[in-house]
Write a structure and sequence with these properties.
Helix content of chain B: 25-40%
Helix content of chain A: 10-25%
CATH superfamily of the largest domain in chain B: Beta-grasp domain
CATH topology of the largest domain in chain B: Ubiquitin-like (UB roll)
Structural class of chain B: alpha+beta
CATH class of the largest domain in chain B: Alpha Beta
Strand content of chain A: 15-25%
Number of strands of chain A: 29
CATH architecture of the largest domain in chain B: Roll
Distance between the termini of chain A: 40 Å
Oligomer: heterodimer
Number of helices of chain B: 5
CATH superfamily of the largest domain in chain A: Aldehyde oxidase/xanthine dehydrogenase, molybdopterin binding domain
Radius of gyration of chain A: 27 Å
Largest sheet of chain A: 7 strands, mixed
Number of helices of chain A: 15
CATH architecture of the largest domain in chain A: 2-Layer Sandwich
């Protein structure tokens, strides 16, 4: 069972940041690019018609039924044997640069070191919707493997012809094709002899089954690790072009503020400074950080502000400002709904849970370098949606997309927070005015204020349980968080799960695992409350109400490794368990906390996570993602919250917005279930969803205090 | 504007910059040593850590003029004759990175610790590194890397599984 069909074109409603923008996508002439490649083999993987994602302009779905045949990926093998893979996906720390190379190496039978990935460059790589939704491993991985397999077949044909031997007598391994009886061997690069051979494939192509993987399925070190540890890797914020200026933006006094008056003369009088005013956008560009800062400080602006809701009234506000529940486009707004049945319940339970807005706070703030040359705009920027940002730029400057190029250097993280292109548009606007390239790096305060947040939410659950511990009824309402993970994972025949859209006071959007974190938090804490109400062990209660075999398997694996129920936690400690699934992955988390009612201190001391996402491509990379999700999850679970009032963020710095640090890290154990019989799925998101409820349940076990709001203990436990 | 003479990675570098300009900005924008990263500008994240006379220092809060004549080491200066510093080596071996943006600051902090205290205890490592943020949450791997560097241990790549 899965929460919904794995459909790449589905965009969850809580990806609010994608809901606006141009609806056009102009096909580019790819042939020019093919011409630029030297001799060798080129395999083009096309997506099957109706399945292709079409628009790029930031819109979440185009109007009309025109879906162009799109290219998913391409792969080129040069005459020096170098394999170059072109994908529109980007690397933001999830290590797909490595795992995709492993996938290609596997099906091409080529050494990992021979494979280079060109990623996220709108002039060089095929169009792609963006790197989100844990889709890379689920969709790009098989596409590249198919292209690699097709290349291998083509090279084998060439070798058979060249050596004049039976195709079936050839062995392909290690970037070479060998004929064992005659000991003749040809490298991949030696087969094309100056020719350019191109093949277009689509649909299914036989792949090496995971059971036979040799390169994939084993841990591989990060592809550009050495450049990272030597500081040589250049993030967008590190790039420098000749004559480049440094940009800074004058930010409004509050959200929604408009310019009432502005005085820029003094700033303009500074030598070398360009001041841009365009509507409410005001920016300066200068040949140096200090001068730009001085110019910005010299601008006098008055802003007209309007009253805005504040954090204190947030949850009331969300409930009172619903904007709809029955969006017909929104396939998961009401999932698996039928009238819940209450008469069979021995007792019913109604509870409310809340989650705060939190910030992604990627350590590399949004950054862009923009250059206009001969009527074309090139922007290097850290984004998860290079083609979406290209659309935003084309829209902002009213130029065709083929005059815009977006290049994404491997980026200093995103977590769903870098889907939009504000910094790219701002840098480009200033570069246009200055007639020189401009680099703009958002300050930490700008990053905390002018990006978008993980949605806050209110979740109300009513449930019924029979005397023998079966859940008999379930009604679940989520206000504002979103619909991911909305449907109960438990086998409840009559259930109703509804997502209510609201007018959010703050700008909000995608965050790692979307609303699945909020929905799992509420559901898995509530399940614990139900278990307690019938005096059942939390694990046994879950297993009794669960049919999903994959979820049962991770719960049992986590519990086994944790030693669930084997011994009593030490005094002042408590244990909690939670599980769920999202984006094709299954997770169960057991947490042990130390919680002291009198001092209010709470610390997660031990976490065991069992995770399953089909066949594992890079076990150590996967483990790294899981550990990272757990640690990031501790922040949202215990102390992260965006505070705001009167259209201002009150804690827009690391000194006021606490993120997990070394001392917050528990003892971690990760159990990987490798299902080689299932296709691989992504793991960037799912592992985070069960941490917060497991911690809440552990705090209850330790103290008897039931915490139903995220973050649970920003100022310590309050008894 | 006056000029400042800095000793960076063993080389004297003269730059045109006001003395009150941040060392971070001078390193990145004048000397093109961009491995030292901006993360917060308030000394809270450690992405900008460099060594000043061997001591881990937040370059975002340090005025360039204040470190004239002192030995400044950035991430680019750790590698010697193509050989990685043991801490860099250990980070690679432990797979201690995701996006990598914090890593130069982590490595400089770790290298500074080992210079002063070649065999730190676990609490000493934690105390030294607490001021550095890895938003991706690779802390356990960074700790493993530091342990490895501190003991001179050379294990197989890829961490424990």
């Amino acid at each position: 069972m899965s929460e919904r069909p794995l459909d790449d074109t589905f965009i969850e409603p809580e990806r609010y940041e994608l809901a606006a923008g141009s609806a056009y996508h102009f096909e580019l002439a790819r042939r020019d690019f093919f011409k630029a490649l030297g001799g060798g083999v080129l395999i083009v993987f096309t997506l099957r018609g109706a399945h292709a994602q079409q628009e790029s302009g930031g819109g979440r779905r185009g109007s009309g039924g025109q879906v162009p045949q799109e290219v998913g990926a391409w792969l080129h093998i040069g005459e020096d044997g170098t394999v170059t893979v072109y994908t529109g996906k980007v690397e933001v720390g999830q290590d797909i640069r490595t795992s995709l190379a492993q996938a290609v190496a596997e099906d091409l039978r080529s050494p990992l070191a021979s494979i280079r990935l060109v990623m996220g460059d709108t002039d060089l790589t095929p169009w792609d919707a963006g790197t989100f939704g844990s889709l890379t491993t689920r969709t790009m991985n098989p596409q590249l493997r198919k292209a690699a397999a097709a290349a291998r077949e083509m090279l084998t044909d060439l070798a058979a012809a060249q050596l004049k031997v039976e195709r079936s007598s050839l062995v392909v391994a290690d970037g070479k094709i060998t004929h064992p009886p005659t000991k003749q061997s040809l490298g991949f690069g030696q087969l094309t002899r100056g020719r350019k051979l191109m093949k277009t494939i689509s649909g299914d192509f036989p792949l090496t089954p995971p059971e036979q993987w040799k390169v994939a399925g084993k841990s591989a070190p990060k592809a550009n690790g050495r450049a990272i540890v030597t500081g040589k890797h250049e993030y967008a914020s590190d790039l420098r072009l000749p004559g480049m200026l440094i940009g800074k933006v004058l930010r409004p006094a509050a959200f929604g503020a408009t310019l009432a008056s502005i005085e820029t003369k003094e700033a303009e009088s500074l030598s070398g400074v360009t001041v841009v005013r365009d509507g409410d956008f005001v920016g300066v560009a200068a040949p140096g950080e200090q001068l730009a800062a001085r110019a910005l400080a010299a601008i006098r602006a008055e802003w007209k502000t309007a009253p805005q809701p504040s954090g204190k009234e947030l949850f009331d506000y969300l409930k009172k400002h619903q904007t709809g529940t029955q969006d017909s486009e929104d396939r998961s707004a009401q999932s698996g709904n039928s009238e819940p049945e209450w008469s069979a319940a021995h007792q019913t339970l109604e509870r409310t849970y809340t989650v705060a807005y939190i910030a992604h706070a990627p350590l590399e703030p949004r950054a862009a370098v923009a250059e206009w040359k001969d009527g074309r705009l090139t922007v290097w920027t850290g984004t998860q949606r290079p083609f979406g940002v290209r659309g935003e730029l084309a829209g902002a400057f009213r130029i065709p997309e083929d005059r815009v190029r977006v290049i994404v250097p491997d980026t200093g993280s995103g977590y769903g927070g870098k889907h939009t292109g504000e910094v790219a548009v701002e840098a480009a606007r200033m570069a246009k005015a200055a007639g020189k390239p401009v680099r703009l790096v958002w300050t930490r305060e700008e990053e905390f204020t002018w990006a978008y947040f993980r949605p806050a939410g209110v979740i109300e659950i009513k449930s019924g349980v029979s005397r023998d511990g079966l859940i008999t009824g379930w009604e679940f309402h989520n206000y504002n968080s979103g619909s991911a993970g909305l449907r109960s994972v438990y086998a409840i025949s009559k259930q109703r799960n509804i997502f209510h859209r609201t007018a959010s006071p703050l700008r909000q959007g995608s965050y790692r695992a979307l609303a699945s974190t909020a929905n799992h938090f509420a559901r898995e804490v509530h399940i614990d409350e139900l278990a307690a109400s019938v005096k059942a062990d939390p694990l046994e209660f879950r297993l009794k109400n669960l049919k999903d075999e994959r979820l049962r398997a991770v719960l049992e694996a986590a519990a086994g490794a944790f030693g669930w129920g084997k011994s009593k936690a030490p005094a002042g400690h408590g244990c909690g368990i939670a599980g769920g699934f999202e984006k094709g992955g299954y997770v169960a988390t057991c947490a042990e906390v130390a919680a002291d009612r009198s001092s209010g201190k709470v610390k997660v001391v031990r976490v065991v996570t069992a995770f399953e996402c089909g066949a594992i491509v890079n076990p150590d990379g996967l483990k790294n993602q899981i550990e990272g999700a757990i640690i990031q999850g501790i922040g949202g679970a215990l102390f992260e919250a965006v505070e705001f009032a009167d259209g201002k963020i009150l804690n827009p710095r690391f000194s006021r917005y606490r993120v997990p640090r070394f001392s917050d890290v528990p003892a971690l154990e990760t159990v990987l279930l490798d299902r080689r019989d299932l296709p691989p799925a992504g793991a960037g998101e799912c592992p985070i969803v069960a941490l917060a409820p497991a911690v809440s349940n552990a705090i209850f076990d330790a103290t008897g205090i039931r915490l139903r709001s995220l973050p649970m203990a920003p100022g310590g436990l309050k008894a | 504007m006056k000029s400042i003479e800095l000793r960076v990675n063993g080389t004297r570098r003269r730059v045109e910059a006001d003395a009150d300009r941040s060392l971070l900005s001078v390193l990145r924008d004048e000397l093109e040593l961009t491995g030292t990263h901006y993360g917060c500008g308030e000394g809270q994240c450690g992405a900008c850590t460099v060594l000043v006379d061997g001591q881990p220092t937040r370059s975002c809060l340090t005025q360039a003029g204040a470190v004239e004549g002192r030995q400044i080491t950035t991430i680019e200066g750790l590698e010697q004759n193509g050989r990685l510093h043991p801490v860099q080596e250990a980070f690679l071996e432990a797979g201690a990175m995701q996006c990598g943006y914090c890593i130069p600051g982590m490595i400089m902090t770790g290298a500074g610790l080992l210079r002063k205290n070649p065999h730190p205890t676990e609490p000493e490592i934690l105390r030294a590194m607490e001021g550095n943020i890895c938003r991706c949450g690779t802390y356990p791997r960074i700790l493993a890397a530091m342990r490895r560097a501190a003991t001179g241990e050379r294990a197989q790549k890829g961490g424990s599984q």
